[in-house]
Amino acid sequence: MCLILSKRCNSLRFCLSPLKVIKTIGDFLLLGGGVAKDTEDGVNVEPRGVSSDVEPLLHVDHVVKSFGPVKALIDGSIDLFRGEAHALLGENGAGKSTLVKILAGVYQPDGGRLLLDGVTLNLASPAAARDAGISIIYQEPTLFPDLSVAENIFMGRQPLRKGRRIDRGEMLRHSKDVFSRLGVPLNPSRLARGLSVADQQIVEIAKAISFNAQIIVMDEPTAALTEVEVSRLFDVVKNLRDQGTAVMFISHRLEEVFTLCQRVTVMRDGRFVNTSRIEDVTIDDIIRSMVGRDVSSMYAVNTTVAGEKVLEVEHLTREGIFTDVTFDVRSGEIVALAGLVGAGRTEVARCIFGIDKVDAGTVKVGGKKLAHGSPLAAMDAGIGFVPEDRRQQGLVMDMAIDRNMALASVESLSHLGIIRRASERGLAYEWAARLQLKYGRLSNTASTLSGGNQQKVVLGKWLARKPRLLIVDEPTRGIDIGTKAEVHRLLSELVEQGIAILMISSELPEVLGMADRILVLHEGRLAAEFSRGDANEASIMRAATGQLNASLA
Amino acid sequence: MSITDEQLAVSSNARPTSSSFVTRLLGFRELAIVVAIGLVFGATFLKNSSFASAASVQQLLSGPSIIILLAVGETLVIITRNVDLSIGSVLGLSAYIVGIFFEHNPHFPVALALLVGLGVGLACGVVNGVIVAYARVPSLVVTLGMLYIIRGIDAIIVNGHQIDPSSIPQSFVNFGSNNVIGIPILFIVSVVAVAIVGYAMRTFRSARDLYAIGSNPDAAVLAGIPVQRRIFSAFAFSGALAGLGGALWLAEFATVASTAGTGYELDVVAAVVVGGVAIFGGSGTVLGAALGALLLNTIDQALVAARVSSFWNQAIAGAMLLVAIAFDRYVALRTERVLRVEGARRDNG
After folding, report:
1. CB B22 to CB A191 under 8 A?
2. Residue contact A104–B283, C-beta within 8 A
3. Which residues are within 8 A (CB) of A334 and not within 5 positions of it... i.e. 6 or more apart?
4. Where do the domains of chain A lie, and which CATH numbers do they carry?
5. CATH architecture for the domain at B30-331
6. Does ipTM exceed 0.85?
7. How much is the pTM?
8. Fewer Cβ atoms within 10 A, N terminus or C terminus of chain B?
9. What is the pLDDT of residues A140-189, one digit of tens each?
């Protein structure tokens, strides 16, 4: 099979562009049907190096990276080809970002090698990566808000004139030139501050073009973009790709991968799993190899019957963030708030809990109206809030585990304003046992715990207050799969005990597996509501990207 | 490379209007200070016409000269999102050491004396820079510590002694007190420093790196900027200018005790912030900082001329600082809100 392929391609190679060759190979494989279909993980696996007749531009070969005892990357392998977009997929913690940072020259690999056009590549610094023609575009663009767009593009390599002075005129001309090549009406002399995320991405791409990057690595560039912005971005990227740039594309939106990419590599737990041509796989195949098992088996179905309304949110509005959001959560049910990053999910939760200002609307807990803008009032009404950013907002990382656990309960633990250490410890022991927390000593700082166990501490902190409603924002982000299942089981147990849970999650399998009802936010408005069973990935995605106009009852 | 017209719409949401609004306000800053100086000057002149006499104006220019020089160095440091609080002590130490050179050798050349001052300051700045940039200790703590350490070393060296004005050669004293075509030499030195550094800050890559570092430290690393080396250089430069300021102090006052320059660091930081340099780094100009120093000094002198109790001086300087910061904050919040609402309107519209 491989032999035939090689021959066929070799003969074509001279008359066609590499892209065409790849397409042809793809067609051939499709025609070849079952021959290429292999078995690992039940995915149509293409053995590594099947297209070795086309030299990869960048060959990432068994790259290893550890941080102390944590092995972030055990086997990072991917081949990038000229004129081809290659998707790198995997769950959070699969090692994608570590690989990106190695390509960016930020991390130095502990083992393995990088070959650029067959020559060993040593990326000792971000400057070295740039000089090698590698450009990284991050989810959060890394611009300098106080500097002009032109200067952002040329920072560190501004065009010079006599006396090593910066040639501002040339810099502006060159920037304008790049933008006109991109067909973008951005003014290069404006400050970067205030650019929309989409425009910031464009500036990053302009940067890549300005130094003729051969390789563009995009780490979830679309996470914060609207549908329209995404399609504009893709037009630009497709053009670059067709002109011979190698693109590595990371995204959690699998539909995008199918629009843009020719090849897809899946990673799991820091390891390369497989590489396939996009025509040979389905979304289900990819998800299966990302998760390593069938999705449905991970979740227990909540059989509790929903009780009375615990939380009623009516016409809640925060200007410019979200508008007219109305929903309720009943005791004994999990309601998921789904949507893309930036759709306003976290902001809704923050307003319910009284952290951010509300411009209009009401929040009722147990039928009683809740005062706006007061987390203390929210806590007294029986709400617990497990924030998205565990390290910054959920925990005091340098404080002991037991103190963190007791933090929300200090009022009940103190007598005449003095907190007794013993009662803090007692509370912490109780919840550490109930949550099966894995820790060294309760007096160690929270930073010594693994991500999953840190999350249990945050949960424990709120559970100790016996809340009626628990808001959990991305409860399993950055948590390994084993502990993830534990957190899921824990949430299920809580609803069985009659607690109401409002869950925000970007992981669709989690939303589909856990929630009794799913609310989808799109650009600050509720776009759809599904009950368990009615929803699937595609319908949620459609609603989240604004392709569905189903209005709410 | 040819890209089709399809993408013409990629950035239809570019908003040049809101950006030029901000840019205008930032450019407006220097002008606003000049206007403020003019207003203070005019108002005081109406109350006391001798305020506009040649001697008074020369005093208005020479008075803040050393602060301006220090503010130039401090601006570089603050732009990188750091602060140098040790400059007052550096100035004191350098002034005294230059004085010792003159006591031992009355014919010590003026140019060399300035270099000695510069060298002493550079040495202190290098220590600050190494600790902040390479040991990654917050600059607030490092330079606060250095403020006391250098002042302590100064006190030990001085040991109750005082540089006798008679041991300072006339040529050096002239340097500190004479005028050229009616303009104090000290002021000319400061203006030259502002001009050179101001030009450099616009023109050289390494200087632009400082803005990048202060604007977004993480992005600066990703852009391949040698962040540590640049921060180190900013501190070394600030120290060197403070040392040069010490030599000038000796030229101006001809005598030095161990308390010379005490509290200068805060005057300088106040001047820099009033001059529109963002305290969190990333923006501001050397010219703005210099004008800030000039404004604060002019207010000082104006209160004296208007015979307002000198107790008011500091209160007013403090109020100016708060006004300046409040103004910056207002502009930032306004811009943010405008963009947020505009962005939302675009997305929903």
Report:
1. yes
2. no
3. A302, A491, A495, A501, A503, A514, A515, A516, A517
4. 2-143+195-292 (3.40.50.300), 297-544 (3.40.50.300)
5. Orthogonal Bundle (1.10)
6. no
7. 0.73
8. C
9. 778 999 899 999 999 988 999 998 999 999 999 999 988 888 877 888 98
